[in-house]
Sequence to fold (575 residues):
Amino acid sequence: MRSLPTLPLLGIVLLHLLHSAHGQIRLDLARTKHARHGVKRHLQPIDLANSVQWGGSYRTQINVGNPAQSISIIVTTGTQDVIWLPAKETCENTTLDNYGPCFFGGFDANASRTFDPITDEPELFREGLSYKGESSFASGIRFNDDIRLGNISLSNLTMGYADNVTNGVIPSISFIFEEDNKEQSFLYQMWHQEYVPTLAYSIWLGSQNAQDGQLYFGAIDTSKYQGNLISFGSGDGALLTLPLTSVTATSSTGTDELNSQLPIDVILSLGSPISYLPQDLAFEIWAIAGVQDVVFGIPFVPCSHQQSDAFLTLGLGGENGAKINISMSELVQPKDGFDYDSGVVDEDLCAFGITNATDGSPSSLGDHFFRSAYTVVDRDNRRIAIAPALIDADPEESSIVAFDGNGAPIPSASVLSDQPTFPLVHDDDPRITDWTDTGRSYKAAEGFALSLNDSASSASGSSDSGNQGLATGAKAGIGVGAAVIGLIILGGGLFLLRRRRGARDARKEAPNETGHGLAEKPELSGHGIHHSELGTAGEHQNPVEFQGSEAAPVAPVEIGGRERPAEMEGDKNGK
Fold:
């Protein structure tokens, strides 16, 4: 069964698009008709506006149907066959009550003159588990209709219409696709209808507190990263994977090498505020970061740790690969979205963005990684290029370099020779079974708990060390897609616990299984998180997929435009 896209990130996406030689065009402009004179080099940028309101997801607006209906949709890197949209009447029955009915919007098929249901195919169906462990599903039909994203307008795109769901449906869009369904992919159709020169895009998100981020189609922005772009082969599958070969923790009080259960391949999971790493490695990171409590598999640290200048460095690809730094300011989730009163310590606790992958689940890097690493995805050549992101770069300034045509390599990128490959799931059983006792001490741990001022006074001259070469690669990613295209996402396990101060006293009077008095119903990202044992700290499931029936493939809809040359399918090995 195909995996659905990944969970949302910390933010909201406001989309602006750009003609390559012209000014920016905002999303709310009417559709633009383009003359067909070769490839129209629209270096399409999507501006991502960061908002913590909804537990952190980057979203954008699309317009579907005629007349156009605006729907908020999550941007992910998970695989999906079609864009699923919730029926308006179904959306109004969502269980995401804290965000109001139809928080993302629903589609009214009866109101669109161009809605064309595909009735000669079996019903689409997805199933999984809700965050309470209950059965959760979404079903519906495929349909063709017009869709607009900024100034990009596609006719007769095949989408999914979910008119029978439980536990809420969240629409999402992914620019990753599997080969047997590529004709239904939004990215493929942008190429097919000559909006972009090649099947590639680049992502820059800025910091966790930034208001803007960008996604460019068919181009890179050299003003948004430092050092060299290093190009990795991403394998034959649809998932984005990189080889994680080392992790280092650095603070004003010392440095620790953390190589438990490494090396391993990790999935890049845009849309997930939580990263999943092998259990031994995750527990060692918890010990250094100062985790005080674990609820529903999500660790919590004192919110004050967000002010530390400590960081983790991810090594990807070995000695000649990339190094990405991720700071505690990125790893500790914002207090407004994630803090909770545990009753265990006297200070506020905030969610920490790394947890342990269990039960054979794959490791993944989520939103923290994408904020810390400038990322270029080249679907034509099956490659990913990364470099340390300039987190504080001015989103209004740019230095754009377009891909040089169909199937061209990533601009300015150096191909990593002798790239190592590793399994997604480590074969060895975890050595550490109790997250409170890893069996070793860590020189960097004290510095992870110090504020910037405290750190400077505790170790003179050490402040510079936290800013050098550490690759901000947070392990933020849920195993396999989980963003939920509007269906109950499969791969994920990310719990976004929202602050509910009014319920704290009640929680303390009636503690849950862990004894920490958590709210009866945690607020999730809305993606149908799949954890079977929600009350057991440190033990949770991050399934890649849940088994269920799947509709037969749909014959691709011919929309006009160019056909994909046979030689463009498959790995180009960076050529």
User: Anything to note?
Assistant: The chain has two domains: 12-204+548-559, 221-484. The radius of gyration is 22 Å. The mean pLDDT is 69. The chain is about 10% helix and 30% strand.
